[in-house]
Amino acid sequence: MGSYFFDVARIAFLAGVSGLALVSAPAFAQSQAGAAQAPQADNNGLTEIVVTATKRAENVQDVPIAITAFSADALAQKGITEVVSVGNLAPNVTLDAGTPFSGSSSVLAAYIRGIGQNDFAFNLDPGVGIYLDGVYLARSVGANQDLLDIERIEILKGPQGTLFGRNTIGGAISIVTRDPEPVFGGKLQATTGSFNRIDVKGALNVPISDNLLSSVSFSVKNRDGYQKVIPFPADGAYVDEEDSFPSFGSGHPSTLGGDDEWTVRAKLKWTPTDTLKVVLAGDYLHQSNNGVASSLLATYGDPSDSAQVFGGLYNLCIGTPATTMAAIGLDALCGTRASVGTPLAGVNVDEVSGNDHLTWGDQFLTGDKDKTYATGNNFSRLKNWGLALTASLDLGAAELKSITAYRKLDWSSAQDEDGSPLALLETSFQMKQEQFSQELQLTGEAAGGRLKYVGGLYYFVEKGNLHDFVTFPGGLLQIDGQNLLKTKSYAAYANLNYELTDQLSVTFGARYTIEQKHFEGFQRDVNGTFYKLVLNDQPSEANRQLLCAVANFCYPDASDILRIYPLGNNHQKFTNFSPKIGLEYRPTSDLMVYASYSKGYKSGGWTTRLTTPAVAGATAPSFGPEKATSWELGIKSELADRKVILNVAGFYTDYKGIQLNFQVGTSPTLANAGDAEIYGFEAELQARPVPALTLQAAVGYTHARYTDVLFGVTGVTTDSKLSKTPSWKFSFSPQYTIDLASGGDFVIGVDYTHTSSLFNNTENSALVARPATDILNGSITYHEPDGRWSLSLGGTNLLKERYITSGQVSVAGGAAYGTWSRPREWYLTGRVNF
């Protein structure tokens, strides 16, 4: 039967392509009606979906922006429950859960048309803005939101600097949750599946009075990890020192890659008059996961190779007699280490029982993606909550809206990246962040409805800290990094659309931003590594001065002789003007051709992850903003009496001052290290050739290459590809409904996505590269006649494709590691409406 439906879908799709010349674009919506959609057309055509991409409610087909939009019903039918899964069906979009060494699937690595950010650091802003009911989420930590009780999700492609502002240089992802409804009722959903999965979610509407409505929703997710922690088959005794090194908590799970979290969201909607609406919303996420799956991919521990510095030193220390280490001037480095009161020098050759250490090498490669010897700390614990007050006042010809929001997160994580029972490469982080934002919007019409305008003022303030603990091989280098950051941003914006004729209109938009950033870094070399390595002596004030004089390794603080980071409270101020110019032509009511020019901007910051002392007189290493100038040409069309929606967009982006994250020794370093040109197209098709069959297809192509690379950037040339950016992406989603004589129905849906190869890191490392993939998900759902309950059986990754979603190659740190995608899984979901 599956083959039959594929054949039907293929024929219908090819017929549509050949007959309509496949010009598609950014906007495809599920045919089932959601809260923001217009009623189903009598002719069994496709359902409209309404978006707020221009800060006003409009049919997605009337918005001259490349948008991919999904209703809540569409996501439920596909079994999609979090932001990252939406990326599979959106062309030129890559969304991954987790970034290198974050240890958390709540971190979102988002890329649109080659622009994004693959990091969670507080000093680095994301390149794709995430918005929850119009509120900007400033951190990528917690951005992989649970799509709980939502109305729709919109993915806006290309720079959105005019209307969305902060750090939407690649695009924006807007999550819109459902408002309370004026009837008592609710829904409950339970899911079981692979790895002892038990998910429960529900939503309840409670009208309090005619003008005061409320709703509450919740989600609980529990699932075992898909990667097992297995004992290392060591012969003889060895020392396990993992818990001797600092970590923001303790967690030694038996599996990795599981879920343990709950979310609650509540809303109050008050309409005291016909012209005033006030919505108070709150959400809270509590996550206590056992850490992301991580596999050791390669080891670097050759003492004869200086590039493998710390893995090589570890092996040299444990395998060389202490007297020899003293003779070559390494007895201080291989001696007693901070946090551990034992030396490494000669422990494997001193004939003392019970103190032997395992040699670092390839014996820790398990050869199985779903097994690891990593017994160190692995966990992610997150508390993320927010409150938002949205007030809308109808002024007749205009609407005034105020969005006031406060958010706070508290996150700690740890990841054992060496895949062994040794403390070779381990990280732990703690982030505390809070933000406040206030936005005023005025939207309306003038000139007899020919002029549509949006204007606004925006204020944003964020403060917090990110504290790092990083243990390099055997504790020979131990980093304790406390970083304090604060940002203030002010902006004013306007967007005007004027109809010159009934068919031709122009758009002018602009945003002016002033941003102030403050940062102070307190990174410390806890073990005094460079005192020991260069001087073969312990840290002291005299040695601090000597080390700076003889080797230009300068610990800057006489009151803290282990501090690496340059002294001072650092300040940067950025100003930016982001314009947009557009032209729209509507030859018929069902066809729009548009062209646009726009600019985007992402603010700069400082490199915080220093692992070596700086040269004399050095200041905090800073980087400037990124800028993107983009041209787009698109067509949006409705054909065959709205039985076909076919859209296309082509784009060209000049991308300047790219904030590249590349390795310098053991330090992940940030710099405006390159420029690039990005061009391509995307096409999206939706068709309903017969009432029972809905077809969706999308294809995207992106050419993303560096045109200039700063001299000295490690591992990057003009031949390199931008990370997380495949050249091609194609998706196809047929859905077929079988009506039953009883009045119920079966809905069969399949989602297939082909993605060409991509690189997960800046250096285009083959070890963590992702080959071309073919992902197939599917489900069958039964709806009972009265629509009160339904039952879905589905599977994900049915072709059993496995690929690296995130990883790092740290030759100096001793290891390359990566997270493999989830294996094939099944699920069974029951839903009840009441």
UniProtKB/TrEMBL annotation:
Keywords, in A-Z order: Cell outer membrane, Ion transport, Iron, Iron transport, Membrane, Receptor, Signal, TonB box, Transmembrane, Transmembrane beta strand, Transport
Signal peptide: 1-29
Motif (TonB C-terminal box): 817-834
Domain TonB-dependent receptor-like beta-barrel: 360-798
Location(s), subcellular: Cell outer membrane
Topology within the bilayer: Multi-pass membrane protein
Domain of life, per lineage: Bacteria
SUPFAM superfamilies attached to this UniProt entry: Porins (SSF56935)
Domain (TonB-dependent receptor plug): residue spans on this chain: 60-172
InterPro entries xref list: Beta-barrel_TonB, Beta-barrel_TonB_sf, Plug_dom, TonB-dep_rcpt-like, TonB_rcpt_CS
Family: Belongs to the TonB-dependent receptor family.
Protein name: TonB-dependent receptor
